Every structure is written in C-alpha cells, then in structure tokens.
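Render ATP-binding protein in 3D.
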Amino acid sequence: MTEVRPPAAPSAALWERDEELAAIAEAVDVLCADRHSPGTLLVLRGEAGLGKTALLAETRRIAERRGCTVWSARGGETLRTVPFNVVRQLLQPALVSMLPEEAREYLGDWYGIAGPALGIADPGDGQADPQGVCEGLVAAVRRLARRDWPLVLLIDDAHWADQETLYWLAAFAQRLADLSVLVVVARRPGEISGVSARHLDAVAEAAGRPVTNLSALTPEAAAGLTRATLGENADAAFCREVWAVTGGNPYEAVELLAKVRDTELDPVEAHAGELRELNRSARGGGLVARLEELGIDATRFAWAAAILGDGITVDLVAQLATLGPDEAARCAERLRGARILAVRDPASAGPVELEFVHPLIATAVYNSIPDALRRAMHGIAARIVTDSGRGAAAAARHLLEVHPDDDEELVWQLREAAREHLAVGAPDAARRCLERALEEPPRPEVHAHVLYELGSAAFLTAPARTIGHLRTALGMPGLDGDRRVDAVIRLSQALMHNDQMEEAVRTVEAEAARLPAGPTRMRLQAVQFMWEGIHAGESLTPGRSERLADLAATCTGRDNAERALLILRGFDAMMRGENAEEIAEICDRALVNGRLAPGLGWTDNEWGVELLLMLASSYAYTDRLDRAEALYTEALQAYDTAGWGGGHLVLAHAYVGLAHRRRGRLEAAENSLRESLRLAERVGRRLPLYWTATCNLVDTLLARGHVDEAWAMAERHGFAPPYPSTVVLPDPRSVRGRLLLAVGRVKEGVNELEAAEKAAAARGHHNPVHVFAAADLARALATEDPARAARLAVDVRRRAERLGTDTAIGEALRVAAALETGQRAVRLASQAVTYLESSPCQYEHAAARIEYGVLARSVPDLERGVALARSCGADGLVKRAQAELATGVGRR
C-alpha cells in the first residue's frame, strides 16, 4: 500500500533519512546483482509519523527503477483479528495473475495446505495444523520469489499484522539465507505484547543487522521543510516553533504546514503563536472537530470507512452509513479534500478503493465513534459481509465487536466462523470467536458444545486452557454419547501434554466406570492403558500389565478399540521384555492385511500419534525393523502430505532417525534427528518430543564415536535430569549414563546407570535393548567390582534370552565377553558375532566383529569389522580397528 500525501509529504518525510536510504539502495543493489545472493531483511522502527511509510514508498521507487518486482502489505489496527490478512495482501499481485489450475500446478503439494489460508483453495473438513500451514506459506512464498526475482517484499505497520502472518514472517525470515529476496518491515516500538511481540522480536533477530530506529527531525530539518513548503521568507522563529509544536514529527509537521498554507498564515514570528492551535486541529480531538465541521453525512461516511478498515469502496460505505450513492460520492470527495481519506491506488483499473491518509487518522476516527453506535455498525457490517457470500469467517471480526444480546443466530455464526478458522490453520482466531460466543451467552443445550469446541480449538496452542474449558463442559448437561467420550479423551490428552499424567489416567478411568461393557467403554479403557503405558514414573495401578493382557486376550481386532488394546498389549510386552515372537504376533493382529486400519491412520484424530508410535516401536525393539521402518516412513509421508508440522513432524523425523539408528545407518540417523531437533526447537523445549529428538541424537553421536559433539549437544539442549514424565525411547537415563562414561565422568555415569536400572525395575521394564543400563554398568564395574559386574551380565543374558532376539542375545554375549579373558572371552565374542550377524542391527554387528578380531587376533575379522563400521558411519569403531591393525594384531 502506498500512502497518498500532499505534494510536499513524500519528500518531507525523507528529510534526514540519508543513512536509511543508502542502506536500502545498497540492499537493492545486492539483490539485483546476483539471483543466488542470500536474502536481506531490513527492519525500520519508529513512532507514528516518523516516516516509515514514506521510506517504504521510496524503497518501492528505488526497486522498481532497478527492474524489481515489488509486493507490499500493511497491517491495520482494527484488522488484527483477521487471520492471514497481511500475507494475503502481500501475495495478491502473484495470486491474482494466476489461474486456479496454474496456482495448483505451481504450488504443487503445498496447494491444498497453503491455498485455503491464502483464500485460493477451499479448506478441508478437518482442523489444519498451524505449523504445517505456516510451512506451506513459507514454501509458497519461496517458490513465488524464485519465479519473480528480483523480488522486494514491503510490510508496513507490522505491529498491527495478524498473528498468523507474524508467525509466517518469523519462519520465513529464518530461511532467507538461500533465497535472494529483499524484505523490508516497518513497525512501531511497543504497541503489542505476547505471542505477536515474540514473533516480531524473532523477525528482528533474523535480520542479522541492527534495527534501524528512526528519529525525529532536528530543528534545522524542520526549518528546511518549513521553507520548502511555505517559501524561503519563513523566518527563523516561525520555523523553530514548527519544530517545537510538532516535536520534529515529520507527519505532524507536514499536516501543520498544510494547515498554515490553507489558512494563508504568514510564516513570521508574529504568527508563530497560532501554530499550536492549528496543530491541535490536525490530530486527536482537533481532527474529530475538523471532521464534524464537514457535516454529519461526511462524519458518518468516515465512521463507516473506519469500521470497514480495508476494502473501503464508496458503495460499501454507502450501505453501512445508509447514504445514497450521490451523497456518498460527495462525502468521499470532501474527506479527500480534507486530507482524511485518499485513493489507495490511483492506477488501479478496478473499483476505486479508499484508505485513510495516515493510521493516526484512522485510529482517531474509529475511537471517536460512540461506543454503542460503533458496536451497532459492526453488526451491520457483519450482515453486509455475510449477505455478500463471503462466509462467517470474513464477518467474524465484526461479530466479535457486537454487544452481547442473547442472540442465538450470532452464536451459530461465531461457531461456524471458528470451524472455518480451524480449517485454514488459525486456532487462535477460532478461540476468539468461541470465547465471544460464550459471552452472548449460548442456549443451555448448546453451552457445553461451545465449551467443547473452545477446548478443542485451544488444544494446539494452550492446553492448560483446554483443561478448564473441557472440565466445565463435562460438568454441564448437553454432552452425550460419542461427543462426551471425545471430550473426555481430549481432556486427558490436554492433561498429558500439561504433564498431569496421573490426572489424565484418572479422568478416563472414571468415565469408563460410568459406562456399560461395550466398544465405547473399551475405547476409554484403551486410552487409560495408553496413558499409563507412556508414563515414566512409578506404576499407577497395581496389576496393570496383567489386566491389559487379560483384556487383550479377548480381542480379535474386529474394531479399532480392540486393535488399540492389542497395540497397547504388544507395547507393554515389549517394554517388559517378553518373548519377541509373541509380541510381533499380537501387533500383527492389530493390522488389517498388514496395514493400519481405516480410522487408525497417522492423520486420524481419534486415537492420536502415541498409539501408532507404540506399535512401530514394538516392532523396532523386537528386531522387526522392516515393519517399524515402513510405519515410521508412512508417518513422515502422511504428515508431509497433510501439511502437519509441529509435534507430529518432530516425532516422525525422530522415529525415522531411531529406525536408521537401529539399522546401523548412523549418518542417515543423525540427519533425521537433527531435522527433528530443529523442528522441536520451534515447538518448545522440555517437552517429551524434544527429549525424544535429543536423546536419540546423543545416542547416535556416541555410536558414531563423536563423543565431544554428543556432550556439547547434551549441554546445549538440556539433556540432563529432571527427566520427562513420559516414556522416551531409548531410555534417556541409560543414554545419559553412557554419555557420562564416554566423557570420563565414570562415577557420575555409574550413578546414572544405577538410577536407570532402578527406575526401569519399578516399572517392570526389562527389555535389554531399550534399557541397556545394566549392560553398560557391567562393563563400567568390571575392574572396580567384578562380582557385581558378573551378576549384572548374567541378568542381562537372562533378559535377552527371554526376549529372544538375535540383537538382544548378541549384545548380552558381548557384555559377557568383555568380562572374561583368554579363550572363554574369544568363544563368547565368537558367539556374539554369530547372533549379531543374523541381526538387522549392523552397528552392533560391526562392534562385535571388531571386538572378536581383537580377542582372536584375527586380521580378516578386523578388516571385515572396519568395512561394516565404515558402511554404518561409525567413525569411532573404524579408528579403533585401524589402530589395532596398525599395531600388528593377528600377525604371527
């Protein structure tokens, strides 16, 4: 948007802006010099009227002279509740020029994800993931930027941009290193707080250069501006008073000087005393008084324009202000002549759109509308928008301002708007609509449903709020049947995400007790078992595993409730270290023809991601890695296709990395886990998913032999006690203990491994592959306490044979060999190689082969171990084997 001013205004606002203009010109030069140059981000910060808009207008002129494509957008004080408003404005030039088929082809997989947010595609029926939508918008803008290079993006009044746009802008700003585009953002200091302020701070940090803080004009510049506007005969005292009255604010100075010119006041010292009164008439209450002088119709026209905020056409304003077409047109002319309104884009071929000359004027006019009248006008505006067929979401910003009046229709409209907002990935906008609906208030039979919808809308962004809303809803009449069960399960999920695991379990347990036997009760029981199964603390209910086993034994997998119970039983058996063949058979019964059942897919909301990760992990830790990898990869593809980011994508990358780690593809594992951790940083630290990414990455780096890097990673990402309240695979205490031993902090490492053993025993977790603390502890105590080390090794062997996988038995034999000497050690190492050769875990096979080669003094085994280790990316194993070969091991 280009601000329209009197002739002197654009140049006036650029007085004393040489440094800023030089930086802008340099940035444009860099952009135009090389389409492969990194992107540039400039942030202009200044109080209202200091010339931010004029600098953006000059940026446009500089860029267009150099042949750049320029797209611009502007935030609006009354438009902050409209999701994606500013990013839509920004991309309108590109979107308008495309046919729907062209846009679909150009945006590819992102069309269905970003398209609804941009208003060029219909939203789906479900709830879009906000981070996925943000990623889709980032991808869309990146593709368009490459097409339209050299591209300059201008965002004015970013402090008034909607939260969804600021979320996108913060993400986009971080990706500019490999995209040649110039982004210039103008904002006021302060103005906003909370999430939006954090997004703007992130934008400033991504700029990689100091924010440009605009200052007021000096007295000398004010004098130059005064003489340039009024003539060289303006005397010094008059010029000095212009500066004093306006505080050096360029906008106020321009408006004041325009008033002086209109009143034909001589610019001499004798008239300097009149400047203060003239200045008051150009702002605040004086502006309102000046508006009223134009007549009641012009005032109503200006009020209606302020209510609309954008898309201000004479026809729309006439409807809202109840003016005839001719009178509305005359009012528009009077307001333009008074420098209150201006034509937004004089060169546009479409209907003439108006805008306020300056945001200060828009704010003053909006605030001057009597409260009751302002609310009523918003109600009329909502009806106009709805009658135009633009939908409830478009009318929502007006509905939010209407006075509560027990209006059943308004409640319905707000609920419908909330559904539309959720479908495009704007849960905060949906939350505002539903909170406003509660103020109406809803009818008693609807009230609980609105609370349930509000709790569901807040789940992704504010799980703590979800808890309160859903508890209240469940305590009211109205929620029955499946909807009530959905609410109970969603409440338990919110409690789990809020680290209230015991309360989550008790919530579903109490609801299940109210119901008769049947599929609904079984669904709740399955959720209860699921939360108990991923809780890392002491067992919540005695005999849980036995009850789960008994219940699962009655299940054939005929519906998803039964399939869920089978998955939970398989996961529990895996964690307890029961027979791997039986575990796989239980898990297979939860599938339909070897695939996930309909309604139980990765993007289905009924059960959540936790259940399917349990299924895949049961396969991963019972040597069925082909099945685990297929499920993990399917998850990643499903989330990518659906545009689901956030925690879902974090976990998908983390578990793909875990599968690579189990296979022995350590470099691929590291890449997946680094991507998982990068995404996890956006979601939030100390969450279970953050632990999953960090724990697996540390474990992978240790396997690669990158000990210093593993330690640095752990320190940087807080991989230390206290541990999360949910289960993490592999066991974080075991990984932490292994890390401490690797960096030479043996005593701390032993203590950590002992704590891991104790915690696992309390939960009955005896799978030696998942909780490998006993194996590492045995090795660590081999010299200090050989008797205890031997007992631990025996226990590891017993657990491994109970589980029965080649990996578990082979690893147990490696531990036993490490505690022996002579031929017994050689025999045990040879047996370990035999088992691990049949295992899908190639890293463990490589380690066993090298250990056997050293004990047996066998060069061929060492060389084969080196080849295996190198294929795994296990640099530490390679160096160890090469050192042994260099010393002549195996030579006679």
